[in-house]
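Chapter summary example.
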Amino acid sequence: MPLIFRKAIKEDIKALRELLKALGYDVDESDLSHRINAIRDRDGEVLVASMNGRAVGCVNTIIDIRLAEGLTGELVSLVVSAEHRGEGIGKGLVSQAESWLKAKGCNTIRVRANAVREEAHRFYLRLGFEEIKTQKIFAKTT
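The structure predicted for these 142 residues follows.
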């Protein structure tokens, strides 16, 4: 069966959970389902690459607007299963996400990658992204 790019559906939850584990995030299936709905409620989307009816990759798109930068699309949580890396699936997901974001009016698209994910950095550079900033991220649980 060919590779298909589409919006995530309820039946993808188990596979998405496994994909996120590969990034180091262990998300409960119920929480994952709620998060997908919340992403969509905020005008974002979760796209998957499906092969033989199973999600083998995913990317989350969000739209951000900031006082200084204006409207920007962002790619979040891009991951492809280990057994399918190097097959062009990540590139296809980025292309699908870019098209989706452009249709929403985003002319600038950014992606953040953990400093230790050097392979991901090279991947994004090959796709035409430019490194524009290095920063530290601070978080506070309330």
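To summarize the output: The chain is about 35% helix and 25% strand.
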